Amino acid sequence: MSGFYSIARAPRYALLDAKIPRSLLTIETGQVDREGFARIDLLIEAGRIGAVAPCGAGLADAQAPRLALGGAIVLPLFVDAHTHLDKGHIWPRAANPDGTFGAALDTVAADRLANWGARDVAARMEFGLRCAYAHGTGAIRTHIDSLGPQTAISWPVFAEMRERWRGRIALQASPLFRVDFAFDEAHMREVEAMVEAHGSRLLGAVTYMVPRLAEALDIVFRLAARRGFDLDFHVDETADPAAVSLSMIAQAALDHRFAGRILVGHCCSLAMQGEESMKRTIDLVARAGLDVVSLPMCNLYLQDRREGVTPRWRGVTALHELKAAGVRVMIASDNTRDPFYAYGDLDMMEVWREGARILHLDCPAEPWASALFAAPAQAMGLDAGRLGPGAPADMILTRARSFTELFARPQEDRTVLRAGAPVDAAPPAYAELDRCEGLHP
Ligand SMILES: [Zn+2]
């Protein structure tokens, strides 16, 4: 299966009459339609985009094979800035008993201790990457649980995966541990060594409102500054308005005059604070230059879950207000088939469709398109997420001609091109996970 379109197996061919969200093009092409799509022709040459011109401007030479897309939407490969490849797919042996955040923490901790040997972690990571690859993702940042003996097990596995997938999916990893572990010098030495040996010059933690949080943040910021690491935090993943670690991270970034990039994920409680407090925090986040990633599917699943009570809150952060304040915002997958989220397939098209509903990323939709492409690429320091002359012909062809058509169906018939050639677009069968202990349903 390689999608709806039959693509010429030619080194040079033309794609005619494609619609691309204007913010995902590196060049101006004149006319855009009322939804914000540029209507263009593309010439593919030797795996790259050779030229881009307004539709019908006479781009393609007569010899090149051509495929008329009839105004269908073409996208760059997705950039998924927040995932957990090491946790993925453990659900059959580690189901969340009540769907709450607390039970997710406990269930994962028990499964990690019992089952996360190198082979188990590698098999599940590989499975997740094959899903993401089939769906058309070109770059992923994963968090790696870095606690006790797990740290030394998982990081070499990650480094091996990064090498195996080089050229197909660009991989980054950030260590994940409760921020108060920053006070444990042996722990921090080991994390530093693992990041140095196997990591992505990225450091991170989960910032619960622990005692001496500001001091713990100082330790993390000092280490990152000393080693030239970027930072990535799990922040305030709760409805409790007293969770204000986001403003503390922003303040720490300003106090340390931190020069690297900082990505903060979740920030759910920001939406539950009063208008004044929220506005103060957002101003601080903008001034500190933090990038914010919302994880709408996971938030909808975990937040506001109480037995016997219908959820009233969607669980997501104040993403519109952050964007309006000039903060770089994005959405991402987060967990897949683990106690933090029972579903998911590292399919960013699903994240976009769900995100559009949960976060109202529409009316209009085009200004939010960068949240799955260019914005996460910039937050990850990658030259990706936009199409234009000279860029690799890595892209997704859909049959949808408008945002309503794009979001109404799962786009399972999309054609994913890598270096101009269609790739197998079928995700792996779950039965392939059966060789992992306890993952047979
Ligand atoms: Zn996460």
What would the keywords be for this entry?
single chain; 441 residues; alpha/beta; 5-stranded parallel sheet; 12 helices; globular; binds zinc ion
| Separation of the first and last Cα atoms | 26 Å
Which cofactor or ligand species appear? zinc ion
The structural class is alpha/beta
Computed CA radius of gyration, to the nearest angstrom: 22 Å
Walk across the major sheet and give the strand order.
3-2-1-4-13-14-15
The fraction of residues assigned to DSSP E strands is: 15-25%
Number of helices: 12
User: Order of SSEs, N→C?
Assistant: EEEEEHHEHEHEHEHEHEHHEHHEHEE
Largest sheet: 7 strands, mixed
Overall mean pLDDT stands at 96
Shape: globular
Number of strands: 15
Low-confidence stretches: none
What does this structure look like?
With 441 residues, this protein is of the alpha/beta class. Helices cover 32% and strands 21% of the residues. It contains twelve helices and 15 strands. A seven-stranded mixed beta sheet has the order 3-2-1-4-13-14-15, with no helix packed on it. Strands 8-9-10-11-12 form a five-stranded parallel beta sheet. Helix 5 (213-227) crosses helix 6 (245-255) and helix 6 (245-255) packs parallel to helix 7 (275-288). The protein starts with 11 loop residues before the first strand and ends in a 19-residue tail after the last strand. Zinc ion binds at residues 82, 84, 143, 234, 265, 334. Zinc ion (ZN) binds at residues 82, 84, 143, 234, 265, 334.
